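Thread: Modeling a multi-component assembly for a lab meeting

Hi all, long-time lurker, first post. My supervisor asked me to bring a structural picture of a complex we are working on to next week's group meeting, and I have zero experience with this. I have the sequence lines for every component (866 residues in total). Could someone generate the structure of the whole assembly? Inputs are pasted exactly as I received them:
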Amino acid sequence: MITFAKRRWLNGFITLLAAAALLAWHIAHDVSLYQPAILTGWLLLTAVLVLAFYNGRKKLSMLPLGTAAAWLQVHIYLGLLTVLIFALHIDWRIPNGILERILAVFFLAAAGSGLFGIYVSRRYARMLTRRTEEVVLERIPQIMAGLRRQAEAIVLESAAETGSSTIADFYGGRLAAFFAGPRNMLQHIQGSRRASFALTTEMTSMTRYLNERELSYAENLQALVEQKNQLDYAYALQSVLKAWLFVHIPATYGLILLALLHLLLVYSFGGAL
Amino acid sequence: MVEAVTIQRPRRWDTPFSDAMDEVEVNRILGLEPFRGMDRGRFPETLSLDGIIANDTRVVHFQDGDIVMREGDYGNSAFLVITGQVRVVLPPGLPEAMLGRGPSAKKSLFQAIAQLWRNPAYPEVRSVFFGAPDGGTASRDDAQQQARIFIQDIRAVFDQHRTAALGPADMFGEIAALGRTQRTATVISDGPSELLEIRWQGLRDIRRRVDDFRRHVDRLYRERSLTSHLQAMPMFQRLDAEAINRIADETVFETYGDFDWHTQYQRQRDESFSRRLAEEPIIVAEGDYPDGLLLVRAGFGRVSRAVNNGHRTIRYIGRGAVFGMAEIIHNWRHDDGGGVVADGVDDDGGAQTTTLQSTLRALGYVDILRVPTAVIEELVLPTLSTAELALYGRLDRDRVSTGKSRDDDAWDNPVIDPGMLEFLVEHRYINGTATMLMDLGRCVRCDECVLACARAHDNNPRFNRHGRRHGNYMVANACMHCMDPVCMIGCPTGAIHRSSSGGQVTINDLTCIGCATCANSCPYDNIRMVEVRDGDGAFIRDTVTKLPIAKATKCDLCLDQLGGPACARACPHDALKRVDMQDLTDLGRWLNR
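Re: Modeling a multi-component assembly
Sure thing. I ran the full set together rather than chain by chain. Output:
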């Protein structure tokens, strides 16, 4: 076992060495009047296939194929190296063929979503731990529905017992939509508390018109609002932690299919390569 | 105002071991050896011998071939033969299958991959519904509706295995019961037999008050276990047989705490820290003179130091650990008659003899062997090298640090955050040899661990990604494969057992009768009772009661899988580890990554 810092340095150093070797090799091929695009193309396809097999490794958890954590390290650093291979392959220019451009878009989508994924994986995991209780994403709508029922019960009881509609009006105008489902997703993803702050401020303002009995109902409602906010936060962050894979994996499979087509075309119409 | 409900404070004998021990039966037992010769005057009125017999014993009947106890099981009682005869199976013992334990063969490569498509669509599907008598055993209920496993062809077993006969007035199982260690042999009833089962509390009280009985038990332990226990300790390995025997003769046996710590812990876990700490028996206190080296034979101890009005836990120790060696070495090196000081350093900065630097408390239950200091100084210390003396002589005060430096020394001797240490000790997670620890600061909640677990167990995850948290860390609800597996105590069929291959605590589904004894005993709620189904998803029901058949399920550390625990291997973010809590270096390194 080594520290994460040491592992980052070690893996980064190995990747840099590999990148330097690749660049030197590419330059050597170029000055020798070989076609480095053929070699970088094969290298790129191989690297993409190895990167894609990481998902297969996750499904084959019952086989002793090494830990998924070790595979992820390979996936991350090989992925970074693949960006360099891709850049060398397209000669640092925007490809000119329509298929090649689509291929490039798929590669950038896969690489970009991967970089985004590793960023949110590291950042959001800590954010979730600091601000929320552990809750399973799939159960959140159910818990939210429970909170909504509790909130509605408080509002109905408050109206029946106090004969005042202040809380009920506020609920109908402001909170019903808030409790109806996940809210303020984008703001939670950005780490902003503006929406929850605004809601709390409005609730505080509303309390001016409440008597002692109503205040107790409002406090209970406020506690539910806070719980709902926490759930929204967890829902937003956990959704992002899963959603980026819906870009990354389809982009990778699309990339592989298009790359195979590209390979077929290159070898069919490439002349005397 | 609501009036508080008052009840009489629960007392030890509120729940006797058996309701069948009436006066006639108690008098009959008191007329048997060894009770007949015991001086009843040595027992206080509140803890009379009659009371012990009435409340801490029960008469059990076995038929020919019934297994009385199995090698490897954990028990909390000993047996006295009243009538009939039992046979102790001598090494190499009976095959695992005959003891009600399942095979622990690993899946082939094809079987492993086939889990991808062969796993059932319904939860908890069983293809085999009941225990096949593949090991030559079968089960039945006795007159008290207790499940009994019996060996079908017992004569053949006696012919094929070496056995020793025990008859009336012979006792067995007392060392495992008192020491909370595994049974070392299987005992089978040879013909009908009547035995007196004595639970450990009664055994302990008799041992305390009857010298002959204590000498008998201690002698058995000295003869059978102590010398090998001592020889296995690294610091005694240079000693010859004579020295080991001398140490064994001088060793004093001590027991602290409550054997049923798991029920006590469950009751007390919501109390304040200071109150729980106050209830932990002190074995030796900080500032005491180190009059002996303490060897932990069973259970766990909390090592703490006083900090103003509180006590800070600085480490915990378990079976095989020693306490007090550093102080003994220190004093042996500085034995110049200069007096004793609390911190071992005099006003001039020179070293003097020192008192104990920390307090050792019993966490639940601890069995201690105390080797007198004079014996250690005479026999052990002269045999240790300078490096060993430096290693064993490291005082606790030198270990305490709150820093988290990442230099080489910190990595070799990692410091565990005091709060984390308290958390692990308070919740008794220190009991685990494969505690599932999660770093939530790295966990992306992808549930790959749960999915991998489910794939390895017919689509049934054997843990919950849920549990108590401390800071960034969570101890998930997964079987910890405890050093002191209280779940194994009381299993009527031996279905829950330690695997002979790796020591994992596992359940043989075929012999589990769904009594939930293990699930109720587990202090960590890590065993679940499930209702099993057939391949079509229908519940399998009892032919008589029509109630669904239940089975106990838990993490088996992927015993039959090729690569070991699937959960740990499946985590892409290094967020999950199965931790042996006795390996503080490994734990510290993982926490300080």
